[in-house]
Amino acid sequence: MLSAQIILPCAAPCPTMALPVHMLLRHSLMMCLLLHSLVLMSFCLHHAATSCSRNCYCTESDGGGKTVRCSNLQLTEIPQDIPNDTRRVYLDFNHITAVPANAFAGLPHLVELDLSHNELSQLEPKAFRGLGSSLQFLDLSSNKLVKFNPEAFEGLRARANLTNNPWHCDCSLQMALPHVDLEPASLAGYSLPDFGS
Ligand SMILES: *[C@@H]1O[C@H](CO)[C@@H](O)[C@H](O)[C@H]1NC(C)=O
Ligand SMILES: *[C@@H]1O[C@H](CO)[C@@H](O)[C@H](O)[C@H]1NC(C)=O
């Protein structure tokens, strides 16, 4: 029978304690298995309860709003599995090149959308359709947007950051801007003519 000798540091001669190691081993193995399955179980439960877009990092705020962080993930496309109760999406610092039509149509509660620091060169018509009145802030700064396509912004009423794009400030941009329902602050920093209101 295996046994471990634990010598206690005593001044006086003290008795040695013999602990049956096989008991300890069996006990800790059981504990280990139990812990392992508990951890796995809670991970699975957690995942099911708070679904998140693959590879992204999700947090739930007290108000019930979900925040999905997919920043800096080398993404080339907008993920299609963003949970429908999401309030904020951070897709900044990726390599996304386009926003297709209805890309965010399944997200009726979205308040903030950050697409800054990507490689967006075009926004297809109806790109932001479905976001409607919930969206308050749209960040499209630091992309490669050249042509302003008012059809992309159809139905949107949000504060948008459009800075740091190689905009072609031609007539079409000037003609288009007054028809787009964006807040005036969107154009802060632009040396565009004042269209009046
Ligand atoms: C999200 O989608 C599920 C399943 O389609 C639906 O039951 C739920 O009501 C939706 N939630 C929101 C907040 O729209
Ligand atoms: C707009 O985007 C620029 C460039 O990314 C950033 O420096 C600036 O702080 C942003 N403005 C707002 C109001 O978020």
Automatic annotation (TrEMBL):
User: What residue stretch is flagged as signal peptide?
Assistant: 1-18
Query: Which Gene3D superfamilies does the UniProt record give?
Result: Ribonuclease Inhibitor
Any one GO CC term of this protein is: plasma membrane
LRRNT domain boundaries: 51-88
Organism for this UniProt entry: Takifugu bimaculatus
What name does the UniProt record give this protein?
Answer: LRRNT domain-containing protein
The alphabetized UniProt keywords are: Leucine-rich repeat, Repeat, Signal
PROSITE patterns attached here?
LRR
Keyword Signal tagged: yes
Checking InterPro entries in the record gives:
Leu-rich_rpt, Leu-rich_rpt_typical-subtyp, LRR_dom_sf, LRR_TM_domain-containing, LRRNT
